[in-house]
Automatic annotation (TrEMBL), chains A, B:
Gene3D superfamilies with a match to the protein in the record: Anticodon-binding domain, Bira Bifunctional Protein, Domain 2
Protein name (record): Proline--tRNA ligase
EC number in record: 6.1.1.15
Source species: Heyndrickxia coagulans
Keyword Chloroplast: no
Coiled coil recorded as keyword: no
């Protein structure tokens, strides 16, 4: 393919709007352009990479018996009303009315559509299990689109759904998907971890996120330094064993703490360790207000509170509610003398805080030497805090470290959430009606492209893995006006295209421009046709290592073959 | 691929909502399902056919140097306001607001987005020409979605756009596209014609529609019985040579014609030939009302009237306006004594009507023996009627016949319509700013699938051309519980899959059900493994011809190879 015919609008300067490397390079190397906030055009080079990612996804999913279909983006509101998500999804769901004033959603995901399809067509256990997937443009009206393709409002997803007659069958497909996802992200040359994640309102632990390790990741992963344990920090169980300090209980005392509100301020003001302080929060779980205590150096984990209480929703109580319940503002709250009708929950660590410091439920006053049982009640202890670096790994092996991750995939046992709400039932072997079990499995395709760019680049540009590069070879004649160079380049182009995909830079540009563009675009191998063209000698440069070889034209194809094989391994 | 794992929900009965063959069969054979009016899910078999059509399109477009990209469906209203289409497109354009109340269109086509992209990136003649295409889901809120995928509200299109520095370059790409389209539809085994079409408001004749001949087509094509001339009837020039009948002019006479309004009624009432009657219409061209006369047996062609007048718009005058201008209602109108300030246009044929019959501009009265010049004025003669079967072909070769056609493709020289409105300009060789010339080129991908089904079926089901079939071979063991049959089928499945794509019906269904489903699904070759399995003999049935052969298992692969090659030729 001749570069003069291909649309690759490279940029010299780093665009001001791009904060992260992948976004900068995809813009600069002419892969993408923004049309509106969070809405992009994939230019020809990016489209070629997308095709390659999609081909890998298709291969791995077909290998585990998942079948491709294509559902519509326009989804009737009625289906979303059946599942209840029409009301719960919020402004992220893009909605529109057709010419007859009927409501539609623009699909961010397709649980409703596929459940409706399958409930209409499948009535017997004989037709189960079924596993179906699609690769499709999705819509989600993100409040803050950012990082280019990483968090867009229109993006490409692979979403798969499976339907089962029993739990064993769902387990099997879930495992197959785990394996397929591992293959897919490995073939995309991503450094990733499969992490345990929160399964939301459904409960259970059977959901995993595939996280690409990256500083720009929006999620924090807790992983073990000595095993393959990895989890979203919301999920990671704290197994720290606490001990009581060898210290006698002192008398409770109320002291003025004017203007001191945060743990840091109080600890500083009282010259105490933050571990001595109690962080007191008021949360609203469904309709119940509860007080939650964690140690001053810990953070409360709302998901864990929700799970402990078995509630559907959890949120911080608003300041007015807090004032009216506790008689003081946040920063001066504490369990001592808290209203009796409010339950007090505490993290395990709180039990071991001797002579603690807490708010007195009176603005600008704190208690010191507060001790559980003696000075305040705790109705329920539990694991209610986020894990921290240095905590023991929950699997008993090693110590927890943190990393940032980009979520590129998600596998999820839905159970009967949708099949129950939408009555997707079948007759089992005994002729009894049962609700189907479901799984869903997503991959952010455009996000995967971004994650690859984020992990594969250097200060000169992108460095594509062989599997995903838009072309294998960048053939660059230094001077197209030199008859010998252009003749050799043309003949090499024709020859190499039999075996590789080749981009030939046939533009009349200065060598510096051509080389800079070539590095930016990031194809695995560059073949430079320069002064030694007359001798039939060209220069081969490996983009990843920067290694340069002089190669006779007769040996070129084999050399490239070997380099690509080595890079791909 | 085992059929038990594939989702192919076949139906015994013809669904009530499906009027046409392709729609019925795509539903019955388990290829598609409707989600909302004009909105469909493509089930796995259809998705496989789409992949094949798309691959053919990609191959042919890449061969002429067009490059694939992918633009967003969400299009900011600002771009559509720049082109003016935000206001002119009407309710077919699906519109929505994002969470910040900004207006967006859901792309039915992408002229605005691509013009905006190119104007920002291309500033010099050196970067032109450019040809870019995408294959994408489009949205158009059709008033009356119908015929399944044929006229849907969400559908798959290939749309291409080209940008040029001069007319010659646009002409060349237009011709390349014509050739590519001809190859694409030929490879899809469609019986089609490229017809001249109206280019709408832009003028000029450089637009052609690719029409698949079919009774269910929504367009009428006029074609020559002795040449390759074909045109949309709106476009076909009438070159009929008229002669005056050998008849003396008689005196004009006004006669009562109570209740007689249509040409048929008048001709019958007066025992006259419809050719003697004048059809008189009042049209509104931009802001001017005009009278248009055609012969009673002819139909007025509004596009031709518009072109003759050089107006932007044309429409029938409303009844109130007619009454107030002419003093009578439609059915009693005529040129004799028409108001002087209104121009009278007439089709050439009118000049040759001697002693004609026309309305008297007084309800329930007509004139007989009306003659042009003597009794009424004509300000402008022209070709103002639709061509009819039996007229001479405009290319001078043969006679015109009519056929119905499904529009599957459209190539179009846009000229500067969008580049001017949106300021897509470049500097030419002399450093002068010029506006780019553009072309656009569409293919209805999902519509092509339907058109293929419409042309390739029989009373038992679909009959896929080899190029597009979801699988090459349908392997059908008659009885899966028969150990010899299932063993032979399994081994043939493994062997044939090395060379062909194979669907194996491993279901425990009755033979009648399996054969009926197989015919419905319509794969080119069926291999039946039945009673002679023990002898290593199977039956090969060619779906298209119904021909049946007994084949030894050793010869099976070669036999299938030969059949497929023959069918594909």
């Amino acid at each position: 393919m001749k570069q003069s015919k291909l649309f690759i609008p490279t940029l010299r300067d780093v665009p001001a709007e791009a904060e992260v490397k992948s976004h900068q390079l995809l813009l600069r190397a002419g892969y993408i352009r923004q049309i509106a906030s969070g809405v992009y055009t994939y230019l020809p080079l990016a489209k070629k990479v997308l095709h390659k990612i999609e081909a890998i996804i298709r291969e791995e999913l077909e290998a585990i018996g998942s079948m491709e279909l294509l559902m519509p983006s326009l989804q009737p509101a009625e289906l979303w009303q059946e599942s209840g998500r029409w009301y719960s999804y919020g402004p992220d769901l893009m909605r529109l009315k057709d010419r007859h004033e009927r409501d539609f959603a623009l699909g961010p995901t397709h649980e409703e559509v596929i459940t409706s399809l399958i409930r209409n067509e499948v009535k017997s256990y004989k037709r189960l299990p079924l596993s179906l997937y699609q690769i499709q443009t999705k819509f989600r009206d993100e409040k803050r689109p950012r990082f280019g393709l990483l968090r867009g409002r229109e993006f490409i997803m692979k979403d798969a759904y499976s339907f089962h007659a029993n739990k064993e069958s769902l387990d099997e497909t879930y495992k197959d998907m785990y394996r397929a996802y591992t293959n897919i992200f490995s073939r995309c040359k991503l450094d990733f971890r499969a992490v345990l994640a929160d399964s939301g309102a459904i409960g259970g632990k059977d959901t995993q996120e595939f996280m690409v390790l990256s500083e720009i990741g929006e999620d924090t992963i807790a992983y073990s330094d000595s095993s393959d344990y990895a989890a979203n920090i919301e999920m990671a169980e704290v197994k720290t064993v606490y001990t009581k300090p060898d210290e006698a209980e002192k008398p409770l005392e109320k002291i003025p703490t004017p203007g001191q509100r945060t743990i840091a301020q109080i600890a500083d003001f009282l010259k105490a360790d933050p571990e001595k302080c109690l962080k007191t929060l008021v949360l609203k779980a469904d309709d119940e207000y509860v007080i939650v205590l964690v140690r001053g150096d810990h953070d409360v984990n709302e998901v864990k509170v929700k799970h402990l209480l078995g509630s559907e929703t959890i949120e911080m109580a608003d300041p007015e509610a807090i004032k009216s319940i506790m008689g003081a503002d946040p920063g001066s709250l504490g369990p001592v003398g808290a209203p009796e009708q409010i339950r007090i929950l505490a993290d395990h660590a709180v039990r071991y805080v001797v002579n603690g410091i807490c708010g007195a439920n009176e603005n600008d006053f704190h208690y010191v030497n507060a001790n559980p049982e003696r000075d305040y009640r705790v109705d329920l202890y539990g694991d209610l805090r986020n894990i921290q670096e240095g905590d023991p790994s929950p699997d008993g092996k090693g110590t927890i470290r943190f990393a940032r991750g980009i979520e590129v995939g998600h596998i999820f046992k839905l159970g009967t959430k949708y099949s129950e709400a939408m009555h997707a039932a079948f007759l089992d072997e005994n002729g009894r009606e049962q609700v189907m079990l479901m799984g869903c499995y997503g991959i952010g395709v455009s996000r995967t492209l971004t994650a690859v760019c984020e992990q594969h680049n250097d200060d000169k540009g992108l460095v594509w893995p062989v599997n995903l590069a838009p072309f294998d070879v960048h053939l660059v004649p230094v001077n197209m006006k030199d008859a010998q160079q252009s003749a050799l380049a043309e003949s090499l182009h024709a020859e190499l295209e039999k075996q590789f995909t080749v981009l030939m830079d046939d533009r009349n540009e200065r060598p510096g421009v051509k080389f800079a563009d070539s590095d930016l675009i990031g194809l695995p191998v560059r073949v430079t046709v320069g002064k030694k063209a007359a001798e039939g000698i060209v220069e081969v440069k490996i983009r990843k290592t920067g290694e340069v070889l002089e190669v006779k034209k007769e040996d070129l194809a084999e050399t490239i073959s070997n380099i690509l094989a080595q890079l791909a391994s």
